[in-house]
Amino acid sequence: MHIILKENNERHVVLVSPIEDVDFKKLTVKRYFFNWKKLKDESSIFKLTLANSKDILGLIALVAHPEERIEIKLLAVSAENVGKNKQFDRIAGCLIAFAGREAIRKFQNYPALSLIPKTELKQSYIRKYGMIDAGWQLYLEDAPLLRLVKEYLS
Amino acid sequence: MSKKKVIEQYTRDEIAEAFVFPVKLSPKQQLEANIQLNNHRANRRAAMTGPEQLNLKLIQLKFRLEDYIDGENYNPQYTFGYFLELYLQLTDRKKKEFAADIQIHETQLSQILKNRREPNESLMIRLELHSNNTIPAIDWFKLLEKEKGHQLKTDKTLRDKESQYVKHSLQLV
User: Fold this and answer.
1) Can you say whether the dihedral through the CA atoms of A87, A92, A97, A101 is positive or negative?
2) Which member of B6, B33, B60 has the closest CB to residue A116?
3) What ipTM describes this predicted complex?
4) Is residue B167 situated within a structural domain?
């Protein structure tokens, strides 16, 4: 799994791992946009870091549902990686693909990944990640899910 | 930066490349959203073809194999033969059929499945090709390596036997 440093298009290997209690001190709203500690008890939170660094570049909060589905409750990249002047590309894609891999790993029959989008962002998620429109929710499963996982995790 | 400022400052595509915002639905909306999604998924599942299902199962096997290889724990049950047997089950191949698919003798395949014969690199490449590159040869190789690494680490008999050939071993504090 890799992200791309935009200034020279260099690939950097990244890791996604569960958040640790000590990390919460570093998760300021200024850099990570939300109070992540609030989600600690109701979801599983994972962090994305460069393989050789402890600096957190992105976060994702996931909830597993019994109908073989993992829901993305919240995702944010660090402040310096938002917009056209961002340092690294692909952070959110790697986190979403990681969530997809978790669904495939956890559920044996028909694993799926879903999110509830803000209405105005729906088409952007569909274009960027190949998500399927199911009304209120967007989701990925079978071939579109495997495509995303392959694109970002291989 | 607040959510409102993010929405003002960045384009929709830029936001989708950086965020999934929390969206709160009313209980009624949430129920409707779940029904919609379940119906949508049921329709897709009904339309799923055999090759699509097989593809999904193979990816699951690949992830299971890679999780085991990358993990720290050794499980004596998870041998080369064990994972190859799972592959045969998923692809719905009988031993005779599969041996013919990858052009090895059926006895050789049986011995590998029972862990009585060590697979060679050619076989691993053939497995990769048979899976249409879904499970790479390197995964099979690493699986065997993990098994052999564990044997090497824990083989006391071999250590006892080999110790007679080592003299003047280093004296360290």
Assistant:
1) positive
2) B33
3) 0.90
4) no
